[in-house]
Description:
Blueprint: H1 7-16, H2 20-25, H3 54-64, E1 72-75, H4 77-83, H5 91-96, E2 105-108, H6 116-121, H7 124-140
Amino acid sequence: MTFWDDASGNRLRDWMSVTKDQFYHSGKVAVLPLDFYYPGKHEHGGDLPPRPGFADKWHEPLLSLMPQIKLTLLIGQYAQKYYLPQREKTLTATVAHYQDYLPNYFPLVHPSPLNYGWMNRNPWFAADVVPELQTRIHQLI
């Protein structure tokens, strides 16, 4: 199975304004999950959190193999909690203040279909955040 090869991945690539070929085969996109094991679903929907300690153990050595990374997309609350200890109190506020974390990090809501309601309640995301993400991605690709 290929990562991000579902409705969430389609939306993420749309937000980035990249093709599947650019995403998977350009050599310019790296994917590093917080865990290499899928923890399953919450009983109320959404994914369970990644296992504690996995990113602590593996991210630094893996990222040291990728020194050319110019921008890291922090997709969802778990990635933002891990990489942005000084983030806003909510995911919505963190994403709204994405400029505060540039140029290294770009926090995003998860592109899951479960978050369509969030996107409908926050039209500024599609109007302001997505175009800025696309501009930055195109500068890098």
